[in-house]
Structure formats: C-alpha cells, structure tokens
Amino acid sequence: MLITFEGIEGSGKSTQANLLSEFLSGKGYEVTVTREPGWGHLGNLIRTIILDERKLALTPMAELFLFCADRAQHVKDFIEPRLKNGEIVICDRFYDSTIVYQGYGRKLDMRLVNKAAKASALDVTPDLTFLLNLPVREGLTRLKERGSITKMDEEPHEFHELIRQGYILIARREPERIKSINADREIPAVHEEICSLVTERLSPQ
Ligand SMILES: Nc1ncnc2c1ncn2[C@@H]1O[C@H](COP(=O)(O)OP(=O)(O)OP(=O)(O)O)[C@@H](O)[C@H]1O
Ligand SMILES: [Mg+2]
Questions:
Q1: Which one of 11, 52, 137, 200 is most buried, counting C-beta atoms within 10 A?
Q2: Cα first-last separation, the chain
Q3: 132 CA closest ligand 1 atom index
Q4: Are 170 and 100 spatial neighbours (Cβ–Cβ below 8 Å)?
Q5: 34 near 20, Cβ under 8 Å?
Q6: How confident is the model at residue 128 (pLDDT cuts 50, 70, 90)?
Q7: May I ask the CATH class of domain 2-202?
C-alpha cells in the first residue's frame, strides 16, 4: 500500500508521515517512510538543484522535468519493489505535488503536467493521500519557528495561496483517494484522524 502526504510548506507532512509510520510499525506492518524530491544519490543531487541552488534561475519547465526525473528513479528503485513485496510505503509528497506546484503554481500546460507527473510514477498510484489543509500564513509561521527554509518557502504569499487552492481542487476531484484533513489543529488530533482513516482502509468492513 502506498500512502502519500501532500500540502503546503509547513503543513505538517513530515511530522505526520513519521507518526503514521510509528503507528503502523507498532501494529506489526512492514513500513518505510520516504520523500520527494530526494531519495538516493540522484534524488539528493536533484533536491539540491531544485531547493538549494540559489544561483540557478530554473525555468518552470526545467523544474517540472527535474521533479519527474527524481520520481521515475525513486519509484523504480525504491517504491515499486517494496509495494510488490506487500509492504507499506509512506511518501512525503508524490505526483500530486507536481500537478499542483508546476500546474497551478507555475501555470505550465496542465495536460502536459498531468501526463509527465503520472508517467514518472510508472503507473504507481497512491492508495491513500492525505492533504494537510492549513492556511498559508500558519504554515509559513511554523517554518520560521522550525528554522530551515528552502527556495520554495521563499516564494511570495500568492504562490503558496495558489498551491493551497490547487490542492483543494484536486482533492475534490478524487475524494476516494485524497482525504483533506484540517491540519490547523494540535499534532495528536491530526494524527488520530489519519490513523483512523488508514485503519479503515487496511481492514474494510
Ligand atoms: N499540528 C501542528 N501544530 C503546530 N506545529 C506543528 C504541527 N505539525 C507540525 N508542526 C511543526 O511545524 C513545523 C513544520 O512541520 P513539518 O516539517 O512536519 O511540515 P512539512 O509539511 O513537512 O514542511 P515542508 O513542506 O517544509 O517539508 C515543524 O517545526 C513541526 O514541528
Ligand atoms: Mg517536510
């Protein structure tokens, strides 16, 4: 089973991905947490280019294909083998991030973005996606408190607003897969809701 976490910067994706992993391991499941971009050697190189290289003025199209290159390698070498083995993989961002950031955020042609995002996942679709829904201002405040900022975090407020709205739109289109969670609550409350939705999915009535 593939479970992915999505949402604006600072919405709690990494926090909740790790808590869910602990919960599932505690229940005896074989589970790993991974993230995009940035798994493996290629992923780390790509992550540095996209998020940290301040001298590079990446064009939106270049950015699109870097994210997709990262995903193609990550799915083939890491995610797919584990899914075939019956394990649970939790991925901190997946192709919905590409659709929302490069499509709604950078305004590239949506058909191209959709195609590239899904093709790069090699026909792997998340079974369950949690959209951590949080007002932009709250996410940015949390990031300032956390203290590690990337190039994406420094985008203007309007960009993050486009991202938030983009996520809300795609969640409406696929309500079975994408569960929108109110992330403007304490960490344990968000975690509890996520655990109950995953438990329901693992053992349907
Ligand atoms: N529900 C919450 N309430 C308050 N603070 C939170 C909550 N969830 C996470 N945080 C804190 O907010 C900061 C951002 O959380 P986290 O790193 O999990 O977000 P993220 O979505 O992974 O961010 P990024 O997009 O930068 O990867 C962290 O310092 C975390 O401890
Ligand atoms: Mg994170």
A1: 11
A2: 18
A3: 21
A4: yes
A5: no
A6: very high
A7: alpha beta
